[in-house]
Automatic annotation (TrEMBL):
UniProt similarity note: Belongs to the carnitine/choline acetyltransferase family.
Catalysed reactions listed for this entry: (R)-carnitine + hexadecanoyl-CoA = O-hexadecanoyl-(R)-carnitine + CoA
Residue span(s) of domain Carnitine O-palmitoyltransferase N-terminal: 1-37
UniProt lineage: Eukaryota, Metazoa, Chordata, Craniata, Vertebrata
InterPro entries cross-referenced by the UniProt entry: Carn_acyl_trans, CAT-like_dom_sf, Cho/carn_acyl_trans, Cho/carn_acyl_trans_2, CPT_N
UniProt-recorded name of the protein: Carnitine O-palmitoyltransferase 1, muscle isoform
Record-listed E.C. numbers: 2.3.1.21
Regions crossing the membrane: 40-61, 82-101
UniProt-annotated catalytic positions: H450
Location, primary (coarse class): mitochondrion
Amino acid sequence: MAEAHQAVGFQFTVRPDGVDFKLSQENGVLAGVYPASPSSWLIVVIAMMSSLYIHIDPSLGMMDAIKENLPYRDCMSVQTRAVLSAILFATGLWLFLIYLLRYTLKALLSYHGWIFESHGKMSTSTKVWLCLVKMFSGRRPLLYSFQASLPRLPVPSVDDTIHRYLESVRPLLDNEQYNKMELLASDFKENKAAQLQRCLILKSWWATNYVSDWWEEYIYLRGRSPIMVNSNFYIMDLLYVTPTHRQAARAGNVVHAMLQYRRKLERGELAPLRALGTVPMCSTQMERMFNTTRIPGIETDFVQHLTDRKHLVVFHKGRFFQVWLYTGGRHLLPSELETQFQRILNDTSEPQPGELKLAALTAGYRVPWAQARIKYFSQGINKVSLDAIESAAFFLTLDDEPQGYDPAKSNSLDSYAKSLLHGKCYDRWFDKSFTLISYPNGKMGVNVEHSWADAPIVGHMWEYILATDCFHLGYTEEGHCKGDVNKNLPHPTRLQWQIPNECQNVIETSYLSAKQIADDVDFHGYLFAEFGKGLIKKCRTSPDAFIQLALQLAQFRDQRVFCLTYESSMTRMFRDGRTETVRSCTSEAVAFVRAMEDNAQRLALFRKAAEKHQNMYRLAMTGSGIDRHLFCLYIVSKYLGVDSPFLTKVLSEPWKLSTSQTPQQQLNLVDINKFPKYVGGGGGFGPVADDGYGVSYIIVGENLITFHISSKFSSPDTDSYRFGLHIRKAMLDIQALFKPENDKTAQNAKYVHLENGKKHI
């Protein structure tokens, strides 16, 4: 959040919601006219043409008016003019119906009452609403079909936002501090808020989303600190299964699966993600998954997205190789990719001067990297080679040290996570949309640049890749990729560099600064297998609320104080939506934690705190969060030159506990009840505060929760392993609250079973 202080201005992002004929990609026309179809245009034309022959005018005279005003009508016969006017009217009517259907669907999707209903209970109005949404959603929607029908993110009222903000900080401030904050908030609301709010509402009318472009620019792209650890995140491979231990073969299958996914993505053939199987989520972030690079700048970076790229760049032992992904107009087969990667692994050439740690430029501070890029990489072979990297579909690292989860090694997840998060600081291209990492033992992973998308987007792709790799492509008995080996493929080509000593000094400086950051990361990965979502649901509570309250309890036991807590929630039910913050440390959560320590009415307070958390999460999802609204008001204040002590104070508050849940089973391609070993390890991120924790948790199936905990060794107050122990104890202590209740439920069920048995006898 501190990066938002660098805001000095803003720009509007305007994109029309009209009929979007994306002729540059297959199926673009289908998505552009959805929920109608091109064939429906023909039906309307035929209907209008038929009306000419039965002498009925459904246009109420409009076709006659068109006929009389046609250009060059004197050169046409009466019949030709009649046919042409019918076609023009039919086309106009068809377009009008498309707009009508879209705006009707947009109005329906603006209803969010269903989110606030109790789990398992659905009101009659919501059932009717769901039927109407299904009716107007059309059949077989493509990935981008719903984009123009998604509602815009609403701007909350200033009164509501300030009220929720003050409520969120009340448990963290003493009476004197809280009274000062109330005065700041009151002064802001009475004197400055109205002007800023008007500007924000004006932007919301013109932009598709009043938050997302500023969020990308000011939170990510304007940051001048290293993005390695501080911004990028990672995703792990399957926990218990390694399909093959041959590095080149595994990379071949995974890269081929990625090319398949990219083709589906570009054609829009993937099904849109839908809540309740009906409510569509925004797919905008997926557009920049491939062929995308963050380009460094002096004051701000920018995201470069290109169309279909036909190569990738591979890093191995300090050398960069270019590998073409197509031959004869088709993708390389997995066996062909394996051959290419094995050739790279077998290559014994040495790195060129300055090549070994070149990628450390992307791991260090942004300004030196931007300056070096201009000075040393803007011409000659350095420019050609850098262009090859930045224009590649993605970046692949063939690592030389095995990683992965090993139950026999207590710190295997820790080492694996640190490798994915930062590696050696020079063996990942941290500016690429993602770096695919292949290990010698067959394990894989991904390091992701954060500005272009959030974790669920990459998780969606990764689920498809792992399922395709294991269940569709497969391997031979020897562990090689299936298919014939084409030995006539041109060999991968080395990228050439001429890096002067001055540039090598810049590279070394970036490397040392990045290594200092990497060495300070204290990481602990923990598999909580005592119980999972299945048991939590039997307690009739939200799994996310359960875990968040466990984190609050663990945080208090670890630090003996409460702190401002960040939980990421998505806003993808709105056009171009990204995330919102749920402030998890509520007064209700604090009361529950204190009750756990004092042995008071714990279960009742837990239920109250869990319900409060769920309500806050729902408000965040439906555009009524706190932090994005305040962030945008702050940006507007900077643009207008309005000084606001209240907004400055809000935007400077540290998040000492930053949490996030990464969703699993978005695609449901693998039945994990049937294949329980085929579950992913999830992913994580670096610590947000110098003296705080970053916690990513993944609810895997019914019986497993993975925790990825990060902090800094340099902080004397934090210890990731210790915090993991506190989380485990907190989870078990909360679960113990429900044992009497669950035992009673089990006894009642047993009694009912016996009674039914007696009746049956």
